[in-house]
Amino acid sequence: MSRPARTDRRPAHPTSEHPTAPSRAPLPPGLGEALDEWAFSNDPTRFRVPLETKVEALARNGTAEPRPWADTYWPTYQDGINARWQHTGDLLRDLSPAEKFDAAFNGWDPERVRGHKPYRAEYGHFHQPGDEEYYRNLGPFARDCSMRFGNRRTREAAAAGKLLPDGSAKSGNEKEDFGGIETWFGLCHAWTPAAILEREPMMPVEHNGIRFEVSDIKALLIACYNQTAAILIGSRNEDRDIALDDRGRAEKADARDVNPGAFHLLLCNLIGRDKRAFAEDRTANYEVWNQPVQEYRVTMLEKIPRRRATQLARLSGVWYRHNPKAELWYHVQLEVDYITESAASIRPNAESDEQERTDPYEYILECDAEGNVIGGEWLATSRAEHPDFLWLPLHAGAPISPYVSLDQVHLLLKKSREDVEQRGEKIDLKWSVRLDAGEVLQVGTIEVKVDGVLELIMTGRGDIDVYTRAGSDPEIRGDGTEGEFDFMMYGEGSNERGTLDVSAGEVIHVALRGFVDHSAATLIVRQQ
Predict the structure, then answer these.
(1) Class of domain 426-527
(2) 106-111 long-range contacts, Cβ below 8 Å, gap at least 24?
């Protein structure tokens, strides 16, 4: 669709976006460059959300809403989402999530595996070969999951007589344990964004004669987030052990990031201000444990002189060498709550804190003369125990297999939440973005449960426009006035309001487009 061209739009004055930097005395000769630069890989502005950077203005605590849900990470060595997690003795109820999906959606007959048992991936049984007839008779989705994301290599090692009952290799080479599959391998990279972006299944549902429990539906949601559109900061560390120098500091830069200054800003802005969860790899070594970050609390924030910052960082002399641009320093201690994995379950768990765990951190915040955070340095045990990288999931990408789709799984999720929705759940969403001129970001979808009116409220700086389209992403062309969309909210600047009539069952896709560079805004959508 098209809109009339606009002639009343003016870019913001450049000095309002780029104030002159304060002057500062030069460093002593020979001091050299910073040992760590706030480089592109650690720049928190990559999350494309407006950032409050003044340390004294940042929220000291915050909680994400809604709380991400927990589930198993569906370990690879146990066959991923083709693992049978129920043991009732009833074939149909005991099928794996992948088998149930094949039976309900792909025309597969579970009778084909009656009398055949999958490989028993349990302590004391890893050495026993599995029944290959079971795997030959699986449906297309379960077979694909087992072959490509399951324990095929473990089964092959067992069949070749290479494993001991505990799964370790008879050769004694730990790289051959479980057939070369490490026990941390699984789908936490898909569970984490699904838990953040998707509502939690609440009740068991039946579809085409197959009963799906809460964790069956969660597993299928996870399968649809195998590839996720996301923004990442920090570099992955591939080393098993972190080498430290004589001051206890990680020698490699990718073992020191994510930078604690970036970490602090994203915690305080996304969770503290926007109540928006994001993801972390919480281990700095080669293992990747993706977790949803749910809550944080600053337990100490103390402004300290340069000499004290130098002492805490174990630097010799009086000059703080890690960031020569720093003029102010803060000693910080805080606690971060994250959601950990759970066992597969027939009950929801997002409203419980049973799967919440806490990590303490300690670091220096490096600030400019105005008190804006420009970097940081990990301290004490946090030098080796801190997040490796952070990422912000945006929406699902490619599923784990072509034999499953998010639309099909959403049918199950909708049924699972019907009682909750019928109790009058309304819409209250928030997105914060940072965009340049012409940049478009598909920020998310709104599932309308009851007839009514959506109220859209946007605040910010620069100039950002809002587009919506029912059923698919808005397509925006040219100067932003043409394309495929149902609704457009625009004016001069990023402080705008609008309303949109909606009907139950509609899925409204929302996109934002920058009209001038360095625009930043927060969009709130509520149902009246």
Answers:
(1) mainly beta
(2) 106/139, 106/140, 106/141, 106/403, 107/139, 108/138, 108/139, 108/140, 108/142
pLDDT in tens, 346-371: 989 887 788 999 999 999 999 999 99
CA distances from 315 to 13, 23, 307, 320 (A): 43, 25, 10, 7
- pLDDT value at residue 450: 80
Distances in Å between the alpha carbon of 491 and those of 48, 111, 122, 457? 21, 61, 62, 13
Give just the sign of the alpha carbon dihedral 306, 311, 317, 323.
negative
The pair of structure tokens assigned to 273 is 């201000």
- pLDDT of res. 251: 56
**pLDDT tens-digit series, residues 59-113:** 999 999 999 999 999 999 999 999 999 999 999 999 999 999 999 999 999 999 9
Of 374, 27, 419, nearest to 199 by C-alpha is 419
Three-state DSSP class for residue 9: coil
Q: Are 502 and 50 in contact (CB under 8 A)?
A: no
Q: For the chain, what is the total number of helices (H) and then of strands (E)?
A: 13, 20
Closest by Cα among 67, 14, 426 to 271? 67
What CA–CA distance (Å, rounded) separates 362 from 385?
10
Ordered by start, the domain boundaries in the chain are 28-68+228-396, 76-186, 426-527
Rounded CA-CA distance 98/82 in Å is 5
pLDDT at residue 35 in the model:
42
Pick out the chain residues at pLDDT < 70: 1-37, 236-257, 316-319, 420-426, 528
CA 233-226-237 angle, 5° bins:
35
- Tokens, residue 259: 């930078």
pLDDT at site 289: 87
